[in-house]
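Note to self: the last two entries modelled the partners one at a time, which told us nothing about the interface. This time every component goes in together.
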Amino acid sequence: MLHHAKPLARLIGELGKLPGIGPKSAQRMAYHILRSSASDVQALAEALLEVKERIRFCAECFNFSEEETCSVCRDPRRNAHVVCVVAEPRDIMAIERTQEYRGLYHVLQGLVSPRDGIMPEMLRVRELLQRIATRGIEEVIVATNPTVEGDTTALYLAKLLKPVGVRVTLLAHGLPVGAELDYADPATLSSALQYRREL
Amino acid sequence: MLIEEISLDRFRNYPSLHVEPVPGVNILVGDNAQGKSNLLEAIYMLATTKSFRTVRDTEVIQSGQSQSRASATVRQSDGSSARIALTLGRSEQKHASINAASTERAVDLLGVLRAVVFAAQDLRLITGEPSCRRRHMDLALAQTSLPYLQDLGAYKRILLQRNKLLKSLRERWSANSGLDAWTSQLVRYGIGLLLHRRDFVQEMSELAGQSHRELSDGAEDLSVHYHPNPSLQADDGPELAKERYEEALQRVAEEELRRGTTLAGPQRDDLRFAINGLEARVYGSQGQQRTVVLSIKLAELDYIEAVSGEEPVLLLDDVMSDLDDQRRRRLLRRLSGRCQTFITCTNLRGFPDEILSQAGLFRVEAGRIERFCL
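The predicted structure of the combined assembly is written out below.
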């Protein structure tokens, strides 16, 4: 059986570690890189190193940031009394796309999941409590995924934050805009019914 | 509902297979280990995405193959028809499609085809572990109630997470572990299961009682009793059920930490069957127990039909030889003209002529199926 030349095999091995990339895709990407110009490959390699060197966690909200604190936390036009709690930095991008929300964020960096060994103390919960105690925060919006782990994390936070005297709200679960009722699954529909509003 | 045709690809001992069953009774005849039950298994998997013979669904994949596929065209009583397919891979992943459009999850298949199976090993329903009886409730309810299926999926996941947490707390205690939140979640989904199961068993008891009276010629009275954990009253609503479940968890809280596992909830439910007031498991003869299982299965058929408005497909896997002549005849009489039925057997002895003259007869031999006439 023919084997890849060593440097090529190494590249395929490294690419195969990326999420969602199987051996076939890794091989295709490696071939593509081999065929690309030296300057393109240089740019890719530099980008990889640069992101690792320059990006760190925001000291306030634990979003990715180039500076000590991120651009959201530094923005004086943001409402600093409201904090939206999310699991991952990518959730911030999703909420920012709505262009509705003008408050700050707090990234937990995960959801509770004993199966994966993730306990509350491994999330950025202590830091959230600290922010609430010192930064004059009045409302915490919990925006975790509507999954078993997301809902449990939200419940955990609610129990922890209520005694602190801050308002705690949870994102509403309901029907996707533009979708047909007929296609909604019963759990989504029953949640939409439960949280219906006055017209 | 009717299966108009069914195709298998690399499924158990069938490299490929295409069968067009008749609307009424289909009899699959053949020696042991020729593949009769495999076809029934495929039908049941298309209905529930699960095998009735094994908990490891990948067993259906032929050795040396990477996947198996089953597909069927199902016609509903309103005349509409759908083509459904289920593909199973080695790593337990399942893909389903309805009318060539692939669905997001395999469970989206549930409800297109509904089936009730009665196999020789179903005597476990009476004599086996409580888990056999819970599985029976789950499979019947999952086919008729999407909210139940969703609650069940969430509950199982929460239970797994909570058990892992209790185990790790046993090794290393932490006051801030999130256990309260997992407990609230357990209760929230658990009461859905409890109330659904209670109402289901209540109806089943009635329906099974009717079937059993017919099958025993009025001699025996069958009743089915639900033993929920935590115990419930017949008219408890969600609020009271929640209270009872919370109380039960409170009582075992210390023990749970010592043992590292969840000790209250519907994962410990059970069912009891009583013939003339005596428990069938303890006092029933084997013949009586078989008839009880048959009554339960017929009740399941009636239940699914009542709830969904469609007669499910009935699968009788190698059970005819275990029934005496009289019961076999009563059963066939009850079934004739009703739902589409698939029966496996090693010979045609004991089938009345009026059944044989109208049935679809299929000979099964070494992974091949051929229709024949008498």
